[in-house]
Design goal:
Elements (H helix, E strand, L loop, with lengths): L14 E2 L5 H13 L8 E3 L20 E3 H10 L3 H11 L1 H10 L14 H5 L5 E2 L1 H12 L6 H12 L17 E8 L2 E8 L5 E8 L4 H19 L1
Helix pairs in contact: 1-3, 2-3
Length: about 230
């Protein structure tokens, strides 16, 4: 992945991140693991108080369920689990995540609230991403420039296991490896991915102002297919 840019559109804007913000949360977790500040094998007991709605499976899990930090991170990516995400934000620290984003060169991508915090949204505190910055973060993972190579490979494996295939993967070959994280809000649909063709490439697409979610998903799928056909 040589860093060549093939197409850009509105790259100066920041958009509500939805769950794509979970990429830098995952990266920050692995940085902490690398520094031995977090043990990925540590067991966490789920409480009802920390359950969050929206996406994921942990909101329906029984109180007291035991999960390792690694399993919680896997669920944050696989089913975009909001309960898992909020547990990890507390473990890592929101300030640490934003400090890492600054260290990694991101100026527009920021974590300003936990998942499903309706009051924070009403107050104007939203999470934001920028397409170029998310691409840069994914390239850091691919190039093994965050945490260490073993942890970068683990992040890629988690991202390959993302269950939502209605966007970038939707029109691509089923056997094509795609490490990605999707995001969904009523007002934005996004996906950011490393696509493992013979010339691996990263892409981030965010659609705003759509009438139906399916319309946004088709646009993302169409654009991904165009990119794949040009770079396969």
């Amino acid at each position: 992945m040589e860093g060549k840019s093939y197409f850009e559109h509105r790259t100066d804007v920041k958009v509500p991140s939805a769950s794509v913000i979970k990429v830098p949360i995952l990266m920050s977790l692995m940085e902490k693991a690398q520094l031995n500040e977090i043990n990925l094998s540590k067991v966490h007991r789920l409480t009802n108080a920390e359950k969050a709605g929206g996406s994921g499976v942990l909101m329906n899990a029984s109180e007291g369920k035991k999960l390792t930090i690694r399993e919680i991170a896997q669920e944050m990516i696989r089913t975009s689990d909001n309960t898992a995400t909020n547990i990890l934000i507390r473990e890592i620290g929101m300030e640490t995540i934003n400090q890492n984003l600054t260290k990694w060169g991101a100026t527009k991508t920021r974590l300003n609230r936990v998942m499903m915090d309706v009051e924070a949204v009403k107050q104007g505190r939203e999470n934001y991403v920028n397409a170029l910055e998310i691409n840069a973060l994914l390239r850091m993972i691919y190039d093994k420039k965050v945490a260490n190579p073993i942890l970068c490979d683990e992040m890629i494996s988690m991202l390959k296991n993302c269950e939502d295939e209605t966007t970038i993967p939707s029109q691509l070959p089923k056997d094509l490896e795609i490490a990605h994280k999707t995001g969904t809000l009523a007002y934005v649909r996004g996906d950011a991915a490393i696509v493992f063709t013979t010339q691996p490439f990263v892409m981030s697409i965010f659609i705003e102002g759509f009438d139906k979610e399916a319309t946004a998903e088709k646009i993302i799928g169409d654009l991904a297919k165009i990119c794949w056909e040009g770079l396969k």
